[in-house]
Design goal:
Layout: H1 4-7, E1 15-21, E2 30-36, H2 54-67, E3 70-76, H3 78-84, H4 86-99, E4 107-111, E5 123-126, H5 134-157, H6 163-166, H7 172-181, H8 193-197
Parallel strand pairs: 1-4, 4-5
Antiparallel strand pairs: 1-2, 2-3
Helix pairs in contact: 2-5, 3-4
Length: 200
């Protein structure tokens, strides 16, 4: 559970938290979310999305989407990732989400240590920010739940890769399925299998 007194505000009343999901996956888009939270949000539901059960993530997502001052989820697809690399694609997805916020933030908090200026709005990169700042934790939850939904839908089209369970990450069974069946149309070709095989 995140302590409200540690995470409610950083420097601004209209701060947007940004985070991504799917950066390390072998397939599909990288999703990013941007969220501005109100002061009276039920902060006890928030945590780093990876530390929440699927049920708790979905509860938190419902509350974020219902009560946030503003929120948006966007993505950069696998072709863009292959073209501009995963870091730039992650930042592009964040920018796409930020564009849709109304009102626009006057401060942006980003999980991690890399970002590019957005509309000259001040930003701060915070390593492990999804464990420290409420708005980033909320963005983490939205990005992950929206991406998981998308991947599960793709699993119905390509069940041989086991995406419903591995979510596209480099598990042994996923890598073996790629070696057996080849790449799907949604795999990231720039994520070379030779590097993944060294993990096993």
């Amino acid at each position: 559970m995140i302590k409200q007194r540690l995470l409610l505000r950083y420097k601004s009343k209209l701060e947007a938290g940004c985070d991504e999901a799917g950066r390390g996956s072998l397939m599909g888009p990288v999703f990013a979310a941007a969220v501005i939270l109100p002061d009276d949000f039920p902060f006890s539901v928030l945590n780093d999305s990876k530390k929440l059960t699927p049920q708790k993530r979905n509860i938190a997502r419902h509350l974020i989407e219902k009560y946030a001052v503003a929120w948006a989820v966007e993505k950069a697809d696998h072709r863009e990732i292959d073209e501009i690399n995963i870091l730039n694609a992650s930042i592009l997805a964040m920018h796409r989400a930020l564009i849709h916020l109304a009102p626009q933030p006057d401060m942006i908090l980003v999980d991690g240590n890399r970002f590019k200026n957005f509309k000259n709005i001040p930003h701060e990169c915070i390593v492990k920010g999804d464990r420290k700042m409420a708005a980033i934790a909320a963005a983490s939850i939205l990005a992950k739940t929206h991406r998981d939904e998308f991947v599960i839908q793709l699993h119905e089209l390509y069940p041989q890769y086991g995406w419903a369970s591995n979510k596209g990450y480099s598990t042994r069974s996923h890598v073996e399925a790629i070696l057996r069946y080849g790449y799907s149309p949604f795999h990231r070709k720039s994520f070379h299998l030779n590097m993944q095989l060294k993990l096993f």
